[in-house]
Design brief:
Number of domains: 3
Largest sheet: 19 strands, mixed
Distance between the termini: 57 Å
CATH topology of the largest domain: Jelly Rolls
Shape: globular
Radius of gyration: 24 Å
Oligomer: single chain
Number of strands: 25
CATH architecture of the largest domain: Sandwich
Mean pLDDT: 78
CATH class of the largest domain: Mainly Beta
Structural class: alpha+beta
Length: about 375
């Protein structure tokens, strides 16, 4: 094995958390010797952002070495101070933040977000089940394996933190699962369709599908993997006279009331979206953007970015600050208050949704925003 291949192998072991103490020492000693080597810097940039937590990490010793390694050349046009901060956080926090930086040039970074942030925990799994008689069950408190006897002869089980309906219900009564801010949840409805709800969302569905069509109503954001049934099409109804019609497919719906338009994004299969009297067929990778009295707009998007929330990530790439803050507010159960107009700088970045609020806000420093936390309010100030 050649020398470079050997140290690349050590980098991979370090990134995977499988390197021994001796291998870690050897790797970092070699990196320190090669801190001005551009080729090695490129290799480091590939692995440092996926570095696993090292309990032996000593910031006082290693931080100057990392700074020396990255001080000469640029990686992916990233701001070096933020790269260093991100790398240090990742090494110590098990790769929680992948990459985060503004796409616009910052003219003044001397003032930034406040360091005094009252820490708020991230959202978690949980939802409220509302039955036809308006009684409610807090699903956060239902133990795994529990079986719920519901109206109309239906039954549902809680399995691995999600609720799964059987297909034995006889009466068409409706249940609703809703996720408050700071919660997300997964449900398998009676026809076998899987639905993931983002925070601040809901789905209403029958406990038995008895007609020629399967219809559910969604608010907020949801990702659906629809069970195939050619004899009974599946339809999602949304606010403002929007709907989506499918046979069997995977797609994401974003219909929050505080968003400028409703978005339907197709991942697999085919769907028809309806807005008022308009119909539009989508292909995988396409997104329909719908608003009141406007023509349906179809754009190509990255499906992975659209469903990043389902996979435990924020992906802010290409979004403006107000959009980013709306996502943060939903997940951390906050209200955003603007005392001054937010900037329009584009953002590029991904981070884990498991981060505490203070870690998320730390990444916004380069956006030259000022903020404070008062209770559950995120106040953007001058």
């Amino acid at each position: 094995m050649e020398e470079k291949e050997f140290y690349q192998f050590l980098l991979e072991r370090y990134a995977n958390g499988t390197a021994s103490d001796e291998e870690v020492k050897e790797l970092f000693a070699e990196l320190e010797k090669r801190k001005d080597d551009h080729e090695w810097e490129e290799m480091i940039s590939q692995y440092i952002l996926s570095t696993a937590k090292d309990e032996q990490y000593n910031e006082t010793h290693w931080h100057p070495m990392i700074q020396g390694i990255i001080s000469t050349h640029k990686v992916r046009k990233m701001n070096w101070k933020r790269w260093l901060a991100a790398a240090s956080v990742i090494v110590m926090a098990s790769a929680a933040i992948y990459l985060f930086y503004p796409t616009g040039k910052q003219e003044n970074n001397t003032t930034s977000a406040s360091n005094e942030v009252k820490d708020i925990a991230p959202g978690k799994q949980g939802a409220i089940l509302t039955m036809a008689d308006h009684s409610q069950v807090l699903l956060d408190t239902v133990r795994d394996g529990a079986v719920l006897a519901l109206e109309g002869g239906a039954r549902a089980s809680v399995i691995n933190g999600r609720i799964v309906y059987d297909a034995k219900g006889s009466d068409m009564v409706y249940n609703t699962i809703s996720t408050p801010k700071g919660r997300q949840y997964r449900v398998t409805i009676p026809d076998g369709t899987n639905i993931w709800l983002n925070s601040g969302s809901s789905v209403r569905y029958p406990t038995a599908f008895t007609g020629n069509e399967r219809v559910v109503a969604i608010t907020g954001e949801a990702y659906l993997e629809v069970a195939k049934d050619a004899k009974r099409p599946f339809r999602v109804t949304l606010q403002n006279n929007h709907s989506i019609q499918v046979l069997g497919t995977s797609f994401n719906v974003n219909a929050y009331e505080d968003e400028p338009f409703t978005r339907a994004t197709l991942l697999e299969g085919a769907v028809n979206v309806q807005s008022g009297g308009q119909w539009q067929k989508l292909l995988p990778g396409q997104q329909a953007q719908m608003s009141m009295n406007e023509k349906i707009k179809v754009v190509d998007v990255s499906p992975d970015q659209v469903i990043a929330w389902k996979n435990g990530l924020f992906d802010f790439t290409g979004k403006d600050l107000p959009s980013v803050l709306r996502e943060i507010a939903r997940w951390y159960d906050l209200d955003v208050v603007y005392e001054s107009e937010p900037g329009t700088t584009g953002i590029v970045g991904k981070m884990q949704r498991s981060l505490a609020l203070s870690q998320v806000m730390e990444t916004l420093k380069d956006l030259d925003i000022h903020y404070r936390i008062e209770g559950r309010k995120l106040i953007i100030s001058k």
